[in-house]
Fold this protein.
Amino acid sequence: MADRYKESDYGYIRKVSGPVVVADHMAGSAMYELVRVGNDSLIGEIIRLEGDSATIQVYEETAGLTVGDVVTRTKKPLSVELGPGLMGNIFDGIQRPLKAIAQQSGDVFIPRGVACPALDQSIAWEFAPTGFKVGDRITGGDIYGIVKENTLMDHKVMLPPNARGTVTYIAPSGHYTINDEVIEIEFQGARRKYCMKQLWPVRSPRPVAQKLLADTPLLTGQRVLDALFPAVLGGTCSIPGAFGCGKTVISQALSKYSNADGVIYVGCGERGNEMAEVLMEFPQLTMTLPDGREESIMKRTCLVANTSNMPVAAREASIYTGITLAEYFRDMGYNFCMMGDSTSRWAEALREISGRLAEMPADSGYPAYLGARLASFYERAGRCLVLGAPKREGSVTIVGAVSPPGGDFSDPVTSATLAIVQVLQKEDELNEIVQLVGKDALAETDKIVLETARYIKDDYLQQNSFTKYDKYCPFYKSVEMMRNISTFHRLATAAVEKTASGNAEGARITLNLIKQRMGDVLYKLTSQKFEDPADGEDRVRSNLKALYEELVERFRAMEEEFR
């Protein structure tokens, strides 16, 4: 290292406070510049400049650093490597490949100061040019080659957004590593060669041609989300909830079954055993393609693991690393989903670093800029017309889990992220009356409201993710199930209201009578979820449609009888 750097590139540690280090002799440094701290070359990032001194947040354990240790400037921002080999990989918060580090060090923990390239540089990828020839004009974002990353993903090799010129050389079809130069372009007399790998600073959003309105639903396969809380590809979603409520389960279900083209799963400050569960489960999980093939879910997933026992400062980096990876795939024309589990831990990391910087705290000790930081992260989602040719659209959907301490939804992180929505409110009001005076005191129509609410809560919203028939619920099945339940509610209410005054003999239709006469149909109504999507869409649709027609016919016959 000493051979590569001049004396002016070195600073010296004056103060160490947890993950925060203050160094002197740092004149000429830039904000968010990457530095190497101490004899172990720990990775750090400059977060404040004051005169000749720089405040650095270190992304590794700082034990053992002493006053006077050297800080080396790299004159580059914290960046990620983008290229073939991302899918199916597992990184830490600053894009160090965990599998490669485990093989290199033979240890279960990441050694301090370890340097390992993010993408495997020994793999020869099969590169196929798309039709650019020598003499053609090319601009940033143009796709000049395709690499078959795996059986699910075609990796489109693009010119970096800040490059343009005339093609003077393009590699023929063949096998190349990510460091082999595959294209050379000339602009204003200067020639530049590019390989399949790009470097991009994580804090800078990748540029797009135009932001578009999102118009395609994000189908999750979870009835409660698809029916009551629909999301769009290119939108932002939040999953708030206290500890053990199932936020991580929902995030994992989205990763497994959503209609996004791929998923970047960022475990940001969650428990290590939860991330270990993801690492063990995901490689074994398969997804069924439209042509019937079974493929590993890891082929469309990239994991960024940054658990709660890893250094606090790297949590912020892991969120930005994840969103930059998602933006890169968006630029290829894919719809990608980024899971942040959980943004609360990131906010807690901001609070800790802010405290060590002696900044003025705001609500609950969080820094005053918490809302701005959250907004700058969430606004990187969206559906876009991306740069370059061919003309294409892509989207990034952000799903952020929020874990308010003690389940307190007035927590600043939660209130900065979402507004809570009430569902099944009418049923709650009726339940209060039932607890006071009993169910028999309710009007028949109110009893039907309670019965319908029970069907919705117990038979529709409850979904067993461990069963073959219900782990994933296609949207058509969700729609047909809800149509049948709402049809029951509409017809039962109409039948009760029509005969409320009784017929010639004084007989009326009541909920109890409906249950006695139509027990078999109501049993089918509660058993809709057992229809297995594996039987095929046509069969499931016809079975649920037959139930709809039976409901209509039976209620019509009952009304005829009591007319």
Notes: Confidence is low (pLDDT under 50) at residues 419-423. The radius of gyration is 29 Å. The chain is about 30% helix and 25% strand.
